[in-house]
Design goal:
196 residues, little secondary structure, three-stranded antiparallel sheet, 3 helices
Length: 196
């Protein structure tokens, strides 16, 4: 059995090449439209009225390591339009349509539990409905904070009961205020529904 061999063949010698092409010191760049003198310096010192902040009575700017042992709750867990395989964690009879993380914060606060509201976080299966709620169910030593809440699923039942009593309306998203943004006097118009 023979093996194919590949050889490099060059038809020019080193003396035939143009040294000015190979020398990087002779290279001159074409004139650029962007000059370093025209690029503004990066600034992180924005005025406080320009920086986006979420105004909430609950802890939103907490150190992540301090709340590492808190349980995470997403609105997806209570969405009636989802199946269990799509992420819903309660039964279909306890699920609600269009749950919001802000309403979940209210439900957990009504139970007297410590919460951390993270409006910028989202579940990978539900990126269209942002918001994550972290809840302190047990201390780092394993002791329950609230004797009425036995486990995480029991908390889901309490939250779903609250969500059913307080359904999502068109005014519900307006409750989450962003600092520096004026509140609209009227709710935004309904989105256009494609026909056809």
């Amino acid at each position: 059995m023979s093996h194919a061999r590949i050889e490099e063949v060059s038809d020019s010698s080193a003396s035939d090449s143009d040294p000015s092409i190979d020398d990087p010191t002779t290279f001159s760049a074409p004139p650029s439209l962007i000059r370093p003198s025209r690029i503004p310096p990066p600034t992180n010192n924005l005025p406080s009225h320009v920086q986006p902040q979420f105004a909430s009575p609950h802890n939103t700017t907490a150190d992540p390591s301090a709340h590492k042992h808190y349980a995470c709750i997403y609105p997806l867990y209570f969405d009636a339009s989802r199946t269990h395989s799509q992420g819903r964690r309660v039964s279909a009879s306890r699920a609600v349509s269009n749950p919001l993380a802000r309403t979940i914060v209210d439900a957990v606060a009504a139970l007297g539990l410590q919460t951390v509201f993270e409006p910028g976080k989202m579940h990978p299966k539900d990126w269209g409905n942002p918001g994550r709620v972290r809840v302190l169910l047990k201390t780092p030593e394993g002791k329950r904070v609230n004797k009425e809440i036995k486990n995480k699923h029991h908390l889901y039942i309490h939250i779903s009961t609250y969500l059913q009593a307080h359904p999502t309306t068109a005014q519900s998203p307006l409750r989450l205020r962003v600092a520096g943004m004026p509140m609209p006097e009227t709710p935004p118009p309904e989105p256009a529904v494609p026909r056809g």
